[in-house]
User: Fold this.
Amino acid sequence: MLQEMQRRHYRISEYCMQVIADLLDIHPVEVHSVVSFYSFLDESSQGQFVIRLCQTITCDMAGKSDVARQLENDLGIGFGETTPDGKFSLQWANCLGMCDQGPALLVNEDVYTRVTPEAVNAILEECRGKFGVHALTEEKEHQL
Ligand code: FES
Assistant:
């Protein structure tokens, strides 16, 4: 339920937590404790595409810093930030379970491995290619 809310609205607002608590007949603080515990659930608004770059040791040794710098340069934002148009957010992630194929990152639920700085542009273009009627519909939901 929380994951679906995150997918539709790019965050889980206090209002949504209250609605979920009412549906499950539990106290809202129980819902909030789950949301605040899991790093893939966000209370604050996130972009349509959340890019989570693994910062753990193996990916670090495989060149994650160069990928991070390229992402920041191409998007014009730092980690923990969202582009002004609300399309992209950059986040750090801990091990994604792809240690033998680092650097690894997630774009929403899609995994990318052996990412190089040169590959960053293609990944971002792939995301931008998904913008369209469907994306605009999701954008409306994002504002709820
Ligand atoms: S260390 Fe990056 S995926 Fe495991």
The two ends are 16 Å apart (CA to CA). The chain has two domains: 2-37, 49-136. The pocket of FE2/S2 (inorganic) cluster is lined by residues 54, 56, 58-59, 95-99, 102, 104 (CB under 6 Å).
